[in-house]
Specification:
Largest sheet: 7 strands, mixed
Number of strands: 11
Pathway: Amino-acid metabolism; lysine degradation; Amino-acid metabolism; tryptophan metabolism
Shape: globular
Order of helices and strands: HHHHEEHHHEEEEEEEHEEHHHH
Region (Disordered): 1-26
Structural class: alpha+beta
Number of helices: 12
Cofactor: FAD
Enzyme class: oxidoreductase
CATH topology of the largest domain: Butyryl-CoA Dehydrogenase, subunit A, domain 3
Radius of gyration: 24 Å
Helix content: 40-55%
Biased composition (Basic and acidic residues): 16-26
């Protein structure tokens, strides 16, 4: 290249302010420029939820977590923002895109996994089950108040002896005249003790004993909920044991739109999708806190951010967060296009939760002993993520789902 060509190339790479174009230091919180891939509407949703978390959740959540308290009063606020069932259409729901819903989950979990879990239980599980499979009467009765946060829902699938294997459920519904009578139990049911309605799954005495869904007002005689206490994780959320003793329901309580485990699995995939984004929110919060702390904390007369090993930790965190966020965005675009498969959701859930836990653990080391206190959010995120890793499918289950998709050979049994 001659001198004139060199000069033209130099001029082309200079901005109007005289600085080299495209050579600004990348934003440590958006290193790969992912924000540029989002629409104005997606950014608006993201920023509104981020502001809500900054003002209403982060200043209070350490106390909620320490006291094992779920702030029930936050539900109407979330409803007013359109966060409850926000990816559903009609019946008072916001009808937002999958990407917008994912971004909301990311921001909520940057506050706390327990608060994102509430939105997931309400919208992706209970409301989604009603929306996908309910009768028009069931939808009209429950979805509008649930979207407003005036009514709380729960989703009864997991049992004490049937977690990863829901086909082994023992909760049973028998037909008596035109009624259904249900006996059994469920465990680890989010929001069960404060719920107004449960979307409950039970094996029935229909031919072949298929699993069917039921819409159960929690005031129904025979419905009992008890909080699970002594948790070291998800303390700002509620998980319960449910028991059903000769609980009698009218025929109209059954969800008419589905028969078999494909019903609850369809709802689980909605919740798993939200987790893909949410886990990256928790990871990002840990990274942001660790980065700020490393730049301010001095040891040996210099900030710890100046040490090579600390910079390696921060670089590794940033890379995995941006990779995980790009994965979530790609899967979200596929979901909006109607091409996303359950096995691909498993890739996102397995990878992003696993990486988020490692990021939280590394971030804690940068804070040293201070990292184990509630003054900082990292240990709280770390403990919460251990539950996120287990619910909606363990690492092992998602690994086998992916393995089956790769090989065509199921390895569950």
């Amino acid at each position: 290249m001659d001198t004139a060509q060199n000069t033209r190339a130099d001029v082309a790479n200079v901005r109007t302010d005289g600085k080299p174009a495209g050579r600004e230091r990348p934003d440590p919180m958006d290193f790969l420029g992912i924000d540029a891939m989002l629409s104005e509407e997606e950014l608006r949703v993201r920023d509104e939820v981020r502001a809500f978390v900054a003002e209403g959740i982060k200043p209070n959540v350490a106390k909620w977590w320490e006291d094992a308290h779920f702030p029930r009063e936050i539900a109407p606020e979330m409803g007013a923002m359109g966060l409850l069932g926000m990816h559903l259409s009609g019946y008072g729901c916001a009808g937002k895109s999958a990407v917008s819903y994912g971004l909301a989950c990311m921001e909520l979990e940057a506050g706390d996994s327990g608060l994102r879990t509430f939105v997931s239980v309400q919208g992706s599980l209970a409301m989604s089950g009603l929306h996908k499979f309910g009768s028009e009467e069931q939808k009209e009765e429950w979805l509008p108040p649930m979207a407003k946060g005036e009514a709380i829902g729960c989703f009864g699938l997991t049992e004490p002896s049937a977690g990863s294997d829901p086909a082994g459920m023992k909760t049973f519904a028998r037909k008596e005249g035109t009624d259904w009578v249900i006996n059994g139990s469920k465990r680890w049911i989010g929001m069960g003790s404060i719920a107004d309605v449960a979307v409950l799954w039970a094996r029935t005495d229909e031919e072949g004993n298929p699993v069917r869904g039921f819409v159960v007002p929690t005031s129904t005689p025979g419905f009992h909920a008890k909080d699970i206490t002594g948790k070291f994780s998800m303390r700002s959320s509620i998980q319960c044991d449910l028991t059903f003793e000769e609980m009698r329901l009218p025929e109209s309580a059954m969800l008419p739109g589905v028969k078999g485990l494909k019903g609850p699995f369809a709802c689980l995939n909605e919740a798993r999708y939200g987790i893909i984004w949410g886990a990256m929110g928790a990871a990002r919060d840990c990274y942001e806190v660790a980065l700020g702390y490393a730049k301010e904390r001095e040891q040996f007369d210099r900030p710890v951010a100046s040490f090579q090993l600390v910079q390696k930790k921060l670089a590794d965190m940033m890379i995995e967060i941006d990779k995980g966020t790009l994965l979530a965005l790609h899967l979200g675009r596929m979901k909006d296009a109607g091409t996303l498969r359950p096995e691909q959701i498993s890739v996102g859930k397995l990878n992003n939760v696993r990486e988020a836990i490692e990021i939280a653990r590394e971030a804690r080391t940068i804070l040293g002993g201070n990292g184990v206190t509630l003054e900082y959010p990292i240990m709280r995120h770390m403990n919460n993520l251990e539950s996120v890793r287990t619910y909606e499918g363990t690492d092992e289950v998602h690994t086998l789902i992916i393995g089956n998709a790769i090989t065509g050979i199921p390895a569950f049994r």
